[in-house]
Structure to design on (422 residues):
């Protein structure tokens, strides 16, 4: 099941230029194919030095194009057609050299010629040494391309293949995939109806981590995937989306304002500082307890006694946001992560936490929910008195689809209600 339903059946022309990051493009091809995308690749001469045409052809399950002067290639699929048959042209890695050619309109090989001849949207994922990236020539080229509507993802900061550290790492395949989905999604481009435009929403996501000493901590298995997908779904419908998240490997959902925290106390403070909001969705797996006396120095084994960790309960963010008051969001949605008697526990949580909706899911061993790609959820709605109004059973969906469906349900609910901030 695709993570990004929008990608199913789309055609991507992937230009792989000559950079060490070309190996990551192989992973990108694999992921695009998993989403149901057709991928056709153009390898620049430099690109073919880093990855072989055979590997690219095997992964893309298509012919690979690399020679502008190939009679067979030109008769089978001229470079003009190559550039027009895709829904999107992606350049990954985009080297300083290819970006310069694109900015100045040079066309001396198949990659640059194809890019000059295309009338389709173009997304570049630059990758280069940090000094090359920072050079005014590259920055001017990037600005020229941005002015022409070329989209860009990355580069990221981090350690570079040349041994230096700085900005120049190509974005990760997962980030490029999300950027491709965003470019192809008319709603994410702000071209569709945006039922949540003008609404402020808050989403919590990921685990929290609670320190024991400077090097150890308590946490849980939450990946943040579901919470991030909800934030993405809400932003896609035009909401001003604030995502308060514990540490996760998930890329920032496009169009959201991300606040990174570690502990439950920090998550609560960030949520309260974000009020007022129209809607709050608490999808984070907040650690229920924290250590009372966090050690200032690393606990040592040779200090005789085994350390005894005294735990104190963390604040309940969902219950705090649900409390009646001038800043209570119009709609508060919680999650119920259960391993047994899912609906029964979820209903009890709905009443106990005084929220309006609960999304209940089974996170038991064997379900693959925690850390997985998919989720089977039930949406419980409360009556004004805190009783159970309704239960909807949703089918097995990708977490992205759960996020989109929940965002649509939220948009339907808030339609016509007064705004938290006008
Ligand atoms: N939650 C929260 N703050 C906490 C604990 C939980 O905001 N300190 C929120 C979660 O984000 C979720 C909901 O409360 O929306 C339920 O979380 P869950 O872990 O299922 O339940 P708990 O409240 O921890 O209760 P229990 O451990 O008894 O299942």
């Amino acid at each position: 099941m695709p993570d990004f339903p929008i990608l199913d059946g789309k055609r991507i022309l992937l230009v792989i230029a000559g950079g060490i990051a070309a190996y990551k493009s192989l992973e990108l091809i694999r992921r695009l194919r998993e989403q149901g995308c057709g991928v056709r690749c153009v390898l620049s001469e430099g690109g073919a030095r880093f990855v072989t045409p055979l590997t690219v052809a095997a992964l893309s399950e298509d012919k690979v194009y690399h020679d502008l002067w190939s009679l067979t290639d030109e008769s089978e699929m001229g470079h003009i057609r190559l550039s027009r048959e895709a829904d999107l042209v992606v350049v990954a890695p985009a080297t300083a050299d290819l970006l310069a050619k694109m900015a100045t309109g040079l066309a001396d090989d198949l990659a640059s010629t194809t890019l000059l001849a295309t009338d389709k949207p173009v997304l570049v994922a630059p990758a280069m040494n940090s000094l090359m990236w920072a050079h005014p020539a590259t920055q001017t080229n990037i600005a020229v391309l941005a002015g022409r509507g070329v989209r860009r993802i990355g580069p990221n900061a981090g350690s570079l293949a040349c041994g230096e550290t700085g900005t120049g790492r190509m974005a990760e395949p997962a980030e490029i995939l999300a950027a491709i989905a965003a470019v192809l999604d008319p709603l994410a481009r702000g071209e569709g109806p945006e039922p949540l435009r003008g609404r402020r929403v808050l989403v919590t996501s990921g685990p929290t981590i609670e320190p024991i000493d400077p090097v150890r901590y308590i946490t849980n298995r939450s990946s943040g995937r579901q919470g991030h997908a909800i934030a993405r779904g809400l932003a896609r419908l035009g909401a001003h989306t604030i995502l308060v998240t514990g540490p996760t490997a998930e890329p920032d959902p496009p169009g959201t304002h991300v606040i990174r925290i570690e502990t439950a106390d920090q998550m609560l403070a960030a949520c309260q500082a974000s009020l007022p909001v129209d809607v709050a969705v608490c999808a984070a797996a907040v650690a229920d307890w924290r250590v009372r006396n966090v050690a200032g120095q690393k606990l040592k084994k040779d200090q005789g006694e085994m350390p005894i960790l005294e735990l104190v309960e963390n604040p309940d963010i969902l219950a705090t946001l649900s409390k009646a008051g001038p800043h209570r969001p119009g709609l508060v949605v919680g999650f119920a992560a259960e391993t047994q008697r899912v609906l029964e526990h979820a209903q009890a949580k709905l009443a106990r936490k005084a929220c309006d909706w609960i999304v209940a899911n089974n996170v038991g061993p064997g379900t693959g929910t925690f850390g997985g790609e998919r989720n089977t959820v039930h949406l419980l709605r409360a009556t004004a008195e805190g009783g159970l109004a309704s239960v909807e059973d949703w089918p097995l969906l990708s977490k992205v689809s759960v996020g989109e469906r929940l965002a649509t349900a939220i948009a339907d609910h808030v339609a016509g209600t007064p705004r938290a901030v006008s």
Observations:
- The chain has two domains: 5-184, 200-414.
- The domain at 200-414 is CATH 3.40.50.10300 (Rossmann fold).
- Residues 204, 264, 282, 284, 286, 288, 314, 316-318, 334-337, 349 surround cytidine-5'-triphosphate (CB under 6 Å).
- Residues 399-414 form the longest helix (16 residues).
